[in-house]
Amino acid sequence: MVIPLGSNRRPAMAGPMTHHSDVDSAGLVDRAIAGDVDAFEALYRQSVGRVHGLCLRMCGDRSLAEELTQEAFVRAWQKLPSFRGDSAFSTWMHRLTVNVVLGHRRSAGRRQNRETAAGEEWYSEGGATQERPGVSMDLERAIAGLPKGARTVFVLHDVEGYKHTEIARVAGMAVGTSKAQLSRARQLLRKALAS
Amino acid sequence: MKTFDCDQVLSMIDDLVDEALDEHDRTSARSHLEACPSCRAEFQAATRLQAATRSLPRSTEPERDLWPGIAHRIEDRRVVRGEFERPPAVRPRRWWMAAAAAAILVVSVSLAYRAGLERGWPQTAATAPVESFYVRAAYGGPGTGLESARDQLRSSLDDRRDELSPETWSVVMENLLVIDNAIARIETAMADNPNDGRLNRQLATAYRQQINLLQRATRLPAEV
Ligand SMILES: [Zn+2]
Questions:
Q1: Mutate to test the interface with B, among A2, A143, A184 (most CBs of B within 10 A)
Q2: Which residue of A112, B2, B156, B185 sits 20 to 30 Å from the alpha carbon of B41, by its own alpha carbon?
Q3: Is the model's pTM score more than 0.80?
């Protein structure tokens, strides 16, 4: 009987973006590859906060972020057989999410217009998720108000810890452009927070 | 030591905050900051921004449970759902039935599977208009055509579950799973090359393999 299962997966390496639960995820990943939806749900529960947080900050629109979060997990389910286990599942999932968000943007559908330009949509309801101190709320609002390109680079570099070379690769831009966008984003944020 | 003017220092603020300057430039920039209140204010604002950014939570739970929507979309597209029982030790009375089913199913599936992965799927089944089929498959809508034919067969097979022995059932499910995995792999490749004609044909062929398998399985004689 031929049943392709994930081959011997190396234990997850600790890294900057490694989640503590990755040690448990390897077994779940194997089961999910074999078609076990319950195992995939467990992986979803482990990582949905990070995936959703990333989508929300990158696109600045609450309902679009929910849609992209779902899209990222559907894509992950489909691509799981190609997950080789040489990075942690959370790292793999994180990169896949970045690709989903950027791919959505590139596809330039009508939904693109939903990305907020004013940064007033999802923070205006007053910290719907949890109590957040004023400074960080102001900062979230200011990030959501950045132009798309600057916001993307700022979130990936300053919030998520990507290097310019990595951003250049995933976003298809020159390293110099990434640096310039970051500098522009920081300037705009300093100005927004000072006022 | 070099001396920098305000414009030079302002252009270096990012590198200063990121600690990306070499020692000489850093020392020179710092001495400018000590003497220049306006550049210093800008530098302090940049430092505050960095600290605030670092304290942002990277995780935000969605306000509603997004899992049901995901589960719906992924289960919709799979033939083998959840767990199916492993065959117990084959009981003598029925061993030939399970073996016969296995012989029919495994041969066709594993040949198709290997052929598909290594040399491209045989194109015998690619007679349907592939383009329109792919549109349905890719967007997972409640499609007609191959995908829904497959789903109908799957549900008639479910209706026969009580008539088939656990051994036979297990053989059928495992073989369907092999093709599910093949479909997942083809779709992975298609995510990067959505218009690749060969991949589109492979996907159509994989669906047809499942249909073929399901047709045979629904016609197996009752065992129980
Ligand atoms: Zn100055």
A1: A2
A2: B2
A3: no
Cβ–Cβ gap B59/A53 under 8 Å: yes
The answer to whether B106 faces chain A, any CB pair under 8 Å, is yes
Q: Are residues A94 and A41 in the same domain?
A: yes
Integer Cα distance of A83 and A94 in angstroms: 13
> Same domain for A112 and A155?
no
Q: What is the pLDDT along chain A (195 residues), one digit of tens a residue?
A: 333 333 333 333 333 444 445 556 778 888 888 778 899 999 999 999 999 999 999 998 899 999 999 999 999 998 887 887 778 899 999 999 999 999 988 775 544 455 554 444 444 343 444 445 566 788 999 999 999 999 999 999 999 999 999 999 999 999 999 999 999 999 999 999 887
B64, B70, B192: best to mutate for the A interface, most A CBs within 10 A: B70
- Cα B84 to Cα B167, B168, B170, B177, B210: the distances in Å are 11, 12, 7, 11, 17
Q: How many domains does chain A have?
A: 2
Say if A6 falls within a structural domain. no
ipTM greater than 0.90, yes or no? no
Taking contacts as CB-CB distances below 8 angstroms, the residues of chain A near B106 are 1-2
Instruction: For residue B127, give every residue at least 6 positions away whose Cβ sits within 8 Å of its Cβ, in sequence order, or none.
Output: none
Closest CA to A97 of A20, A27, A21, A17: A17
57-96 in A: which are within 8 Å (CB) of B? 57, 62, 65-66, 69-70, 73-75, 77-82
